[in-house]
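Hello Y.,

Per our agreement to keep a running log of every chain we model this quarter, I'm adding this entry. I've kept the format consistent with earlier entries: sequence first, then predicted structure.
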Amino acid sequence: DTAGDGTTTATVLGQAIVQEGAKAVAAGMNPMDLKRGIDLAVNEVVAELLKKAKKINTSEEVAQVGTISANGEAEIGKMIAEAMQKVGNEGVITVEEAKTAETELEVVEGMQFDRGYLSPYFVTNPEKMVADLEDAYILLHEKKLSN
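Predicted structure for the entry above:
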């Protein structure tokens, strides 16, 4: 038997839960009761999955799982394993659609934002027109700063 990674199953189940939940609420069910029921079911399913989960330790095992997730494309599976090896368990892997047919792996140290800078005065490298900051301070604020 061949088994996938469960993404299609999870998507179909999620859609069914939403559809049937909407029907139940339309028929008079209390939405909070529905939410509590879903939460209880999620906790049970997660606990059972944790019992049955098999820990993977090697890069080859990561590549096997990656290959399954990539619909059997071994090259992509190997690239996923390589990316996991480079960033570690706590790293972030972002998959983006390329403008070419070539598949490539790019490792970015630190953080990279795909949006432009607020002012051209932030540019630290005029040749490349990038703002490359090290040990930058970041301010998080809920409201708009006016001056």
